[in-house]
Design a protein that fits this description.
The chain is of the alpha+beta class and 188 residues long. It has 4 helices and 12 strands.
Amino acid sequence: MRKYQIAILTISFSLFLGTLSAAADLQNGFMQYKWGDNISQYQELTELYAKKDVIYYSNPGESYTIDDISIEDVIFGFYKDSLFAVYISINALETYDRIKLHMKLKYGLPDTKTSTKDHLTTYKWKYKGVTIKLKTDEIEEKMKLAFYYTLLSRDLKKDNLGEIDETSFRFFPIDKTKTPRMVPFLEF
């Protein structure tokens, strides 16, 4: 019985230390990408979209894991060439539920914002200079996880560019004033 208690304490302590180290990592950046780093440090990223001082990039060949969940659709937001945000598209409800549980365990209960009109739900956590948002659009069945470096995202909002992600549920923003180029998916 004593060995069983020691084993449980050891496992609990190592999980606690793992949580602390992952949280400390988030404070500094996302995976190997550090908050505030200049885009010139990441030659492997491919530009997706730009609007004024905000440019979005991805690394198509790279995948990441969060709580043993493999994630491939990751967008990096740079404001004035400095990393300020990371957006992750979530493709399965099971993945969404696991990420939500993972975030609750690491960062506590979130602030919750629900719009019955738009059928949007946003869970929001703040941790040491990083704002984390987990969003769902029930009508379009889209889900995403976003990390914002508060220092730079605050500057972005001051420059009136914050609406790029906040007013839209799209995975990566598209300029509303431009008509997108249509590419046929199927032809008969």
